[in-house]
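Chain entry —
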Amino acid sequence: MRDLRSLCVLVLAGLALAGTGCKRESSSRAADAPLRLGFFPNITHAQALVGNAEGTFASEPGVGKLEVRQFNAGPAAMEALVAGSVDVSYVGTGPAINTFLKAGKDLRIIAGAVDGGAMLVTRTAKSAAELKGKKVATPQLGNTQDIALRYWLKQQGLSTNIDGSGDVQIVPLSNSDILVQYLRGGIEGAWVPEPWATRMLLEPGGGGQVLVDEKSLWPDGRFPTTVIVTTRKVLETQRPRVVALLRAHVKLTDRWKQDPSGFASAVNAAFGQLTHKPLAAPILQGAFTHLQPSLDPQPSALSTAAQHAKDVGFIPSADIDGIVDLGALKEAQGGAAPK
């Protein structure tokens, strides 16, 4: 239940900072203080991996001094954002929506980053009905994939509960632990982002099948996996630097679109630097076939995701009006609409 406690901490932090704490820290920061960027060592944070490893962010004129922080989970990154110890972060849509609703609606999604790349891989089950009574994992309680799995199971008439009970037992595990448990036969499957889905299928001892490719559940097969977020206060006080950071993000995204295989190799090199375990070529290639770069955070898909989270009981309201602010991105693109 560690992740549930993290959600509670986030809510309490948001309530506390809605008063004076967050404002004091933001207003008291020195003018030459570094811009603090958060991201995860995941290939679904592809632009962040390359931008950090190759110095693209730090060298972009206008960014100034840059400080990078790595996180392993969305709630931890969002707690840092709410507390004012991170200014901008790459994060999944689930934690972003949860933070917006539970911490004063101060969070802003300012750009899209990555679409797609999430699947339910199972060892033996070839239908939802065959999951009944079995154990299925997700990367984190209440994260983007966890909500997607619970909502899909609900649509199939199968119950799940936060304590792990229900028709299907959902267990929150880190991505690396999910892979280990799957290879050992400790779980029937998992709803995970890339490259973990492809690793489950291709690693020795893995196999099975893709029971659900999440893109099949969305119009045109597109859904946002990673977005860039900041706060309303940071946009007010550090807008030129945020715009400069987004210029670097746009360049990285364009590079990915123009040279997918070359960018995938750069991502893997950066991933290997951080984890000391670069992906094998077949896994890298398989994973990147399911990922798509996108600057558009797809507001309509975000609203649908919020409704799904509400339907499975993780948030009290699906009203996320105001969560998306693409003004800084349009400035970074010279007034162009995001693609």
Remarks:
- The CA atoms of residues 90 and 290 lie 19 Å apart.
- The first strand starts at residue 35 and ends at 39.
- The chain has a mean pLDDT of 90.
- The chain has two domains: 2-116+222-332, 118-221.
